[in-house]
Records
---
Amino acid sequence: MLCKFCITCINGFLTYDFIESLKNQKDFKPYIIGVDVLDRTKGKILCDKFYKISNPKKNEKKYIADILRIHKKEKFNVILPLSDIENYLLLKNKNLFREKRINFKLPFNDFEVAKLFYDKKKFLKFCDENNFPTGGYKIVDRFDKVNGILKKNKSKKYILKPIKGSGTKNVFLVNEKIRKSIKILESRECVEVNSKILKKKNIFKENEKYILMPYLNGNIYDVDCIAVNGKIREFCIRLREIKNRFMFYSTGHRIIKDSKIKKLISKFVSKLKLNGICDFDIIKNKNKVYLLEASCRFSGSVGACTKSGINFPAQVIRYMMNLKKIRYKIQYNNSFRSFLVFKKIKNTKKNILLDDYIPHYSKQLRY
């Protein structure tokens, strides 16, 4: 059975693992249509067809028009959004697609839940109201509010992040013990600062709202889940094995079991009656489990699960296309590094992988 998949954000650093997870399946044959806002993208070489699209953050109408144009030409069965903003906009425009008789499938279809996950303020409020621990937070829209909290707790570190955003972009680690700013991730404008440096940055000038949270020093976990009518059908916990905990993609994972994490996620999935693919960020501090973020799309590093026995991208396709599900058996306590693309694209002078990132490999490490 030939399936045409449109995969967005094809420039992601872990695209290789994701696309490989869809290939070599016995029950369907994938035809990969990749799209991205960049024309010169490393994921381009992995696709059967590639299209450059408008930036969804800058122009929603042009982005949706591009998706419609590509669908008219390619007639893809499924679209797999790999970024929060694209997932949000595709779900927001479901009625438009229906009016135009555009009939592709999405791995998640509840726009109200997508809105909840996309707005971190609403998400945290929902967690508070339903007793899902988040570690505490304050919504701040002025520097003096931040400074007042810092003065009362000079020995503590805090995370300051935008209400709407993805990963660690424009995230600050606020630490009153440092004198100079420290670049954590230059490409994502993720910086460690003190209150004086933060004030000079004037981040609240356009009435932007931020979330101020205590910095919790503990293990971080990614949780992948396929849910059907509020019940977990497929589940995997990945312990992040990283040197820089602010990396916007994880450089390694250990597949583990944890009953506390599974209990928390099961309760959350049931409360919202989730249906489709879900991804959760968890931190464990002093044996307490906190829910940091949730999304209704694939995690960029979900390919690590494939290496350990459970293929989420392929299994989601089976759920969407009503194919017979495979009973996967997870291998626990293996560690994996994800794979980045190095191959040159024709007629380019240098490698497509950006020079300022450290490559990681698909080698399996056993302990």
---
Amino acid sequence: MNGKRRTRQFHAWSFAAATVPAVMTCAGIAWPWVLAGCAAAAVFYFLLGLLRRRTGMSLTESYTTAFGNFIGRLLLGLTAVWTLLALARTASGAAAAFPEGDGAGMAPAVLMALTAWVCIRGENAPARCAAVLAPLLAGLYLILLAAALPDVKTEWCGLWGENRGILEAGSAMLLPTAALFLREGEDGKGKRAWWLLGVMAAGPAAMALAASGRLSPQVVQAEKLPFYMLTKSLSILSVMERFEPVLSVALLIGMFCMAALLAECAAKLGCAARGNGRRNWHGAAVCTAAFGLSFWIDRVPEAIWSAGAALFWGIIEILAQVVVGIKKEEKRGKKELTNGDEDGNIAERSREGSTADASPERKTSKNEEKSS
């Protein structure tokens, strides 16, 4: 596959997957906290891109190089387990896309079946699907925001809630790290997706602003999915419209892209931890395991999800790249010192050789003077 086309597909895949936490998590938090958390996530990806360009290593390679073979593989395995749990949570939350539908209970099974089917067709198949679906998602959410933002009330747009919303929003938007694990063999020197960083910072904040500005902070805090409640009050030209199906379709599409991303990432990390090559059926096996875990995954507290995402999709990656950069600098310094010593020895030997070559000439000149 062409490198530029693959990069664009992964950017679209990351965007499509990130729309799910933007709607389901960020829309229920005050927009200043969301903006701060998403801006921190964007800065994280900017710094991670700089480090990857400097080290020239992918995330998977940096684990074993920074922490050694055993610890590196152990961390890869733990990250794979965490990604599997995140996939199970995605399957469990699939029913939220149809909060008033009678068949919402079948949504997790349908989502995992679709994800397993596309994973069997290879890693490139879900990337191509996401590249097609991402513009559709962007259009749907632009329609919803265009209908909601003009009627927000300024008195409801202030700061409310606790500042832990920064951690919740920032950790939720670390999901695209899973896409970086799939870009094996790339050194991070491709074209940067500035538009993706901008959308990651501003998009969730706009959704949070629309939700609290239209519903009031009290209603947002009371609702499980406030953005869905928002769609019930939207109107175009003073005519009430039924936007709930639009949001349901957008959520289901985003969850499909998110589930495929997590399934492929978990399979790739699991194979890297064991030192085996990836097979197409591995993604389907991960989906099956995630579906089994989805029945009890809701018992995990929200604080665990925020801390786990910050650790496995943020801190370890930055730390690995920093350690690799330090090791490379030390190796480069030792190499320069060794080369300097070798150059000094060569210069010293050359001076000794020139002195030895000059001494017979001096002896000959002295003999000639004596003979004359």
---
Amino acid sequence: MEKQEPALHHAVCGVLSAVHDAPTLLDKQRQRFRDALRASQHPANCALARLCRCRVLHSQLFSALHGEAICLLVAFERGCTLVATSASAAGDALAKPETCNSSTDLLRNCYLQPLSACTAEDGVYSAATPEFTARQALDYTWPIVTSVARMWGLHGPLMLYGELMAHLLRPRPRVRRRVLALAQDLRLGDCDGRIPLDRTLAVHVRLGDKASTRHRALVNATAALARHTSRTLGMEVIHFASDSLRARAEFGARMRELDERERSSGVPIVSVPAAQQIFTGDDNARAASTVQHKRNDSSSDQLELLLAEAVLVAQAGALVGVQVSNVDRALTELMGAVRWPPLTFDVFNDQWVPGAAVEGHNSNAWQGLIK
């Protein structure tokens, strides 16, 4: 396992470079589960440990991470150490391979810490626990998640998922450094001249490879909800994150329009500098092809940037995002690992659920703006 840089374990200007070791605020049951989870993935002797593998049925980054979360939970419940999943290629399309010393499993070898302290070569796979398959469907996840949460005295499935996702997103030093650099770029944190993260409203709009004529309605509804939420909670800045440059421009324009209509001053909006990001949500192309087409030698590492912004958003005071998205579900879970309970708002009024729901959106959309 890669040795961590000691300085990166501490908050800088109140900004955590990782959330897996965030204080649990004297929640003894939660700390007990966190310690047990870590111990299960770091056995004293890998040669004698029960090792297991898991198949994940999804390939996009945050969908694959949710698959790994179930893999990790099932392994924990069965008493085996998870050494590999089939999600090893997740995120490769966004990575910058020339910055990595490995040609395989870029996500774990270069950006995030390994799943466990053991590898497949450390021993034989457990005969009692062969390679298993984890599904995200609620009919599969619900019994496992609720049972483990109840057994460990956790405050429900969301707290459990927060610990699982935070464990999976333990960043390597390069990502930790990027978190701190991004916070400085956006002037977020507790130092002079910055705005504290708990006074920040994070807003996320992901169009992905599903860009359509409905995107403007989604952006307009998100702006209305973000404005209402920021004013209600007294937030001092909005951190707007999106895979679409067009959505960024339209969100800002809509916010200014709403402010002018009511003749009020607006909340400042900050975003990742456009020059650092390759926007993959402005057309129907797959993110991989967009990044490959637009990437050049001076391009920022998109996987590093995405992971760093997720860690930063997780420390915001509240989030506006759609829970049907694996990205926003993961952000909600990570927020729950930092402060409890996490405050999240959805333009469709959907709620977080521990798995992929089969139903559509809640019909009671925010102010009826999405048609």
